[in-house]
Design brief:
295 residues, mainly beta, Rieske Iron-sulfur Protein, Naphthalene 1,2-dioxygenase Alpha Subunit, Chain A, domain 1, 2 domains, four-stranded antiparallel β-sheet, binds FE2/S2 (inorganic) cluster, binds fe (ii) ion
């Protein structure tokens, strides 16, 4: 599907990538909202993980992608003439300058994008001005909890089409047919859900979910609450006794006609990690069903 949206909202936080994708001293180039962005994580003196940063992936000298150069854990080196840039986007070194040459390199910088990292989620702000709010995050999560399962998939459509899959219950019995979710003849049941307002969106109030293999594995009597934060973050919180599972989904525009859909699962149930080798391909298959209908 290739119906273009007239514009992309910029003055909001977007989910950029899982923090785990950025190892200390490494960078990752991405196109986000049609702009080339170089994301990276600095390395501390003892080799540990530093802060995440994001700068425009274009050298202000002759416009080559900085991602084609190198990163030493502190500075990005342009591949063309070796100019160096700090994570703030500030130019720090021009190798061809000779002593005595009166040139103020502090006037040179590439754009820096504000970023935040919370619970292993990296958020980016691509608005013209500095952010006037903090990213939505998942404040109910324990501070040290990180995702146990991650799937990131490119959808060939605008964010407007990708986001519908997050709030459209009518497609579920038709698209998500599989042995691990729903099988057999399509059965439609009338259901009523209660909604209430929540920051920048709305929340489907806590209810007992339909019986699926996933919920059967969790055992007990799971209850789920699903919150939507516009334009594209969905968090499902499943509570089973004293334990919780959070299913975080975010849609991020690559450009007007391509959208990245990211699904990350968090949980406080230690034994669930045993299921990761099986659950990971299933999660990819499930998300692929949403993507394939749009292809
Ligand atoms: S193009 Fe980057 S240093 Fe010249
Ligand atoms: Fe779906």
């Amino acid at each position: 599907m290739s119906v273009a949206t007239p514009f992309l909202l910029k003055d909001i936080w977007y989910f950029a990538l899982p923090g785990n994708d950025l190892k200390p001293g490494k960078t990752k180039a991405k196109v986000l909202l049609g702009e080339p962005v170089l994301l990276g994580r600095t390395k501390t003196k003892d080799g540990g993980a530093g802060d995440v940063f994001a700068i425009r992936d274009i050298c202000p000298h002759r416009g080559v992608p900085l991602s084609e150069g190198s990163f030493d854990g502190q500075e990005v080196h342009c591949p063309y003439h070796g100019w160096r840039f700090a994570p703030s986007g500030q130019c720090t070194h021009i190798p061809s300058l000779v002593e005595g040459q009166d040139f103020d390199i502090t006037r040179i910088r590439t754009r820096r994008y504000p970023v935040r990292e919370q619970n292993g989620l990296v958020w980016i702000w691509m608005g013209k001005d500095e952010p006037d709010q903090e990213p939505p995050g998942m404040p109910e999560l324990p501070a040290d909890l990180r995702p146990s399962l991650t799937e990131v998939m490119l959808f060939p459509c605008s964010i407007d089409h990708a986001v519908i899959g997050l709030i459209d219950p009518g497609h579920v019995p038709f698209i998500h047919r599989s042995w691990y979710w729903r099988n057999g003849p399509i059965r439609l049941k009338e259901k009523a859900k209660e909604f209430g307002p929540s920051p920048y969106g709305f929340t489907m109030k806590r209810h007992k979910p339909a019986t699926t293999l996933l919920y059967r594995i969790l055992g007990g009597a799971p209850e789920t609450e699903i919150s939507f934060r516009l334009p594209g973050v969905r968090v499902e919180h499943v509570r089973v006794g004293r334990h919780s599972v959070w299913n975080f989904t975010a849609v991020t525009p690559i450009d007007e006609i391509r959208t990245e859909v990211s699904n990350l699962l968090f949980w406080t149930i230690p034994w669930l990690k045993l299921l990761v080798p099986v659950a990971k391909p299933l999660m990819g298959h499930f998300l692929g069903q949403d993507r394939d209908i749009l292809t």
